[in-house]
Structures are given as C-alpha cells and as structure tokens.
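User: I've been going back and forth on whether these two constructs are worth ordering. Before I decide, could you fold them both?

Assistant: Sure. I'll take them in the order you sent them. The first construct and its structure tokens:
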Amino acid sequence: MRKFVLLAAMAATLTFTACNSCGGNNRQRVVINSEMESDSIFMINDSTMADLQTFVFEGMMPLDDGTPANVVLTIQALSLSDNGEYDISTSYMSGNTPMMWNDSGETVVFMGVPNDSTAIVYELISYNNNPLLMMMVNADSSLTKLDRKMMPASNNPYHRLKHKK
C-alpha cells in the first residue's frame, strides 16, 4: 500500500509539472527594470528622432589674412556627430569699409588632427566652390578654425565660435 501511495504521488507530481510546462497557463515571472522601460518609451515617443537639429555657433574667427571677423555658423544635422549642411555669415572691416560674406554647403564630420587622433573635425564644403573650411570641436563645444596643416589658425582664445543653441 505504501508503494501505491508513493507511486500515485509521483504520478500526480509528474502530471502537474507536465501540465504547467506545456499548458496555456504557463506564467513566468518577468522582471522589468523601470529605467530601461522609461528609456525605451522615451525613444519610441521621441518626436525629434530622424529630424534635423539646428546648431548655432557665434564668435570671432580670423580670416585667411589674419583679419578678425564676426561669424555666425549654423549647422543642420541629426546630431553634431553626423554629416549635414551649414550656413555661415561673416562680417569684417576691410580698411574703413564694413564687409559681409555668406556661404552655405555641406558638412562632413571626421576624426583626427596631427596632435590628436580623437579630435572631431567639421569640413565645410561650399556649394559655391569657395575655399574649404575646417573647424575642430574643442572640449567646451566651441569650434576653432584650422589651417591647411590641420593646426589651429589662431591660439587666441577669443578666436573661437561658441555653441549658442
């Protein structure tokens, strides 16, 4: 009798286990990390995904002849690390005459200058066949103009375009 009760208990246990693992009532415990959930919800509901962002830089920058100029550079891209388009407005004095120069084109982002392989560089390629302009991103998100040797065109800390927006 004892063997029969033991055998019946084993059969009941096996039947119960088999039903739970195969049946539609298989409920498994799921752990949800609330941070991951909120991040994924934000990413799904982020209305700016795949939209062009506008980044504005303003400040002083030396021209090729060393003349200081007031510059407003606007870059449109998905992010500052993506290729995009630019508009640049430059005003400066030529003798006693105020001068204005505007240009637009394509931005190409790449990494590295001779002394820093991790530096982010913007290559501004003009639609109007104007000379190529290279800008390096500084640690404070400002931009510095580079010369043809990929070195800063000026060591003056005021010759930087500061990120405004």
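The second construct, handled the same way:
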Amino acid sequence: MKKVSVLIKHHAGPTGDVLICRKNGGPWEFPVTKVRTNEVSPEAAERASWEQVGIYVTGAKLEMIGHNRPMDGKVEHIAEGNITHDNHTKSAWHAYYTAVNKWQTEPVAGTYDEFRWVHPTELAQYEFAGDDVNFLAKYDPWVNGREIKDVRMF
C-alpha cells in the first residue's frame, strides 16, 4: 500500500505557512490519502488536497519518502534521492510532498473539521501521530531551514 501526505504551503517560498488538519479533536496531521492503482503519487497529492480540504495545489514535489519495513513495522523516512534500501514488494510506502495553494484559498470542512496555517518552525508545538511523528523528527532540518542529512530513523 502506498500513502501520500501533502504539506500544503499557503504561498510559495521558504516562509510559507503549512496547513495542518485534525478530525474530532484528535492529533494533527497533514492531508493524507492512499495512492490509487491508476495514478502516480504526485497526482494523489493533488487529489488529496482537493478532496479532503478543498484546495487546488500546484507543483507537488517529493520531499521525503517513508518505507515501512515488514520485518519490524518501523517506518524510516529518507530524503528524496537518497533511497538506498531494498524495495521489498510487500512493503508499505508513505511519501510526503510539498505543494503550493494555487489560489490561496482557505480550507473547507469535509474529511477534517479543524484547520490551522502554521509556520514550519511552529510544527513542533502541535501533537502529531503515526508516520507524521517520524516524518517531522526526520524533517526537522526542513523546519529550521537546514540541510537534510541522510540519517536513518530507527
């Protein structure tokens, strides 16, 4: 199974706020969807943005990919271009894309009932769960504008 999360930036540039969402007062998350058999991951990121929060995005760019290791269930996130592990056919993947809010519109309730535009440096102040926790721990350099090192998460 492949999943895609999308970090929707309110506007282009390194200072653009990122949209976080939550359902029924649960943990915060980025809009997420499963990749359909007839689409590629960037298309899934665009679809998730429209279907779940009502925002058209442009320029979905792969930032990090997670590989769910079948032997222990842990997820490791690796900077795009630095994938060196074995591609096991029964593995689950979770990719994270960044995209820009095309018309700078506001989110619409649907899948989620609460939204916030958050500056990337403030993401650590919010409670996330699941793969998003691992992603943010690995992606901290992005949050702070530093270069991403190729360090595996275990």
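Notes on the second construct follow. DSSP finds three helices and seven strands in the chain. The chain has a mean pLDDT of 78.
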